[in-house]
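#onboarding

Welcome to the new folks! Below is a worked example of what a typical request in this channel looks like: someone posts a single protein sequence, and someone else replies with the predicted structure as tokens. Don't worry about understanding the tokens yet, we'll cover that in week two.

Example request:
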Amino acid sequence: MFFKKLAVAASVLAVSFGAQAEGEKSIHDFTVQSIDYTDMPMSQYEGKAVLMVNTASYCGYTPQYEGLQALWSEYKDKGLVVLGVPANDFGDQEPGNERNIKNFCKVNFQVDFPMTKKMVVKGGDDNAPVYDWLAAELGEESRPRWNFHKYLIGPDGEAVAFFPSKVTPESAELRAAIDQVLQ
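Example response:
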């Protein structure tokens, strides 16, 4: 009887720890919703680097959309995906719905890179799981502190680096990191 209880306890522990150990190991293990509410399995980006950027329409950094679109145009055939992630976490600067956001980006910045539906990115109970994974991989200090925070993910799905809002899409620092992961 003792061994049976021990075996059951060991199984429970294995399942508990196994679930955590068998959890998301790369960005490719996640599926998010596109801005059009269709599934967007991140596994579709295997073999490509991803620059994830939490965006907002009414922010001082909103003009970065132009640079992100230029980055996408320049690097998409080299293996980079720019992924916009609208978020209303900072200053209520993304109050619109997905249709409004998509239209704003298209009309004002001719954005045609992929975008997700709005997500919570700064942490907390409603946080998007992919953003919790990024913070676990790169450390709590990597969590977005404002709009247009950037995460760079390598072609293997591993989180590589993060860049605060003030680092623009045109910056030498960001471009050097992108070039390095694309080698």
